[in-house]
Amino acid sequence: MVEDNETSKGAPVGEGLSPSLRSAIGAFVVMDVMRDANRLEAAGGDIIHMEVGQPGTPAPRLVREAVKRAIDEGPLGYTDALGLPALRERIARHYADAYGVEVSPSRIVVTTGSSGGFVLAFLALLNPGDGLALPRPGYPCYRQIARVLDLTPVPVAAGAATGYAPPPDALAAAFREQGARAVVLASPSNPTGAALAPAHLARLVEAAREAGAWFISDEIYHGLTYGAPAATALAFSDDAIVINSFSKYYSMTGWRVGWMVVPERLVRVFERVAQNLFISTPAASQIGAIAAFDAIEELEAYKAVYARNRALLLEELPRAGFDRLAPADGAFYLYADASGITGDSAAFVRRMLDETGVAATPGVDFDEEDGHRFIRFSYAGPFERMREAAARLKAWRG
Q1: What kind and span of H or E run contains 376?
Q2: Residue 185 in contact with residue 139, Cβ under 8 Å?
Q3: Mean pLDDT in the chain?
């Protein structure tokens, strides 16, 4: 017999309870834009996705074939928390091949995408209340993950005045004056596409070393540069924490597999945290990731599409009024200062989606102070769709 209580009366279970303070973070706005774009698409709209940083290409053929074989050959259970030995060895060899840097496989930690890497790094390296220096503009999930973990984001301006590169003296001030105990920097950057020159990266690594702070290098867009290749922070310090992923260059976003390189003395620290939070990264994704390193010819063909898209949009977006663009050294983004068009980028991109079917991301996702003036366009889709987007935007703005 059910008692005559709140539940039996139909009131929601837990009514009056509140979510945790740690959950009071902002949305990942690009995902909200993608949700709205997908709804319009499902209703029959012809939507061009320039909002989410996701390749429009499948995982390479060798990756798909390797996973199909693995599925047929037996169960795919847990792996070591640090990852499959074969994958860790292959990642270590990648550093010798791509950068001329020797990294022991024992220092590789396979993660559930780069997102899992950021969670592990912040938990393993920082205490509640510690400051975390972050570039502004920058990837929004850095600051939101930090807030969930009771860390304090410390913004470091990296705007047009400095070529979208954080100045070493500003980073040093974040350590010295604002309580930052670590920094996360990406090169090439999301949202700007700007890449740090090796000498500049070296100075930033040195600023962290002098302050006794951790340097966390987000290298997820390595492989996607259109001039000089990107430098790894490991070239300047064995204490740097490097985070990378198979999502971008390797075109494996939905596979959720990434990696970290950590100092030898911290491997067991990361292993314990990973065991308890994630157990292990999905085995099928790890098997596919091993094969990804042998798919360079296909991946370079993908990159050639991005390069063609980039060249097109660098010419065409200014004709639609988006004529103040950040350096597009790498990744697959163009970050436009749209202050001559709008002072409310969030409202502007909503209207643009409704009226043109082109989805883009407002700068408020990347910069809480100045983002209302900026819009990010992702050019990771097929060339014909990028050309169509340019035509729609020119007609709309004309």
Answers
A1: strand 374-378
A2: no
A3: 94
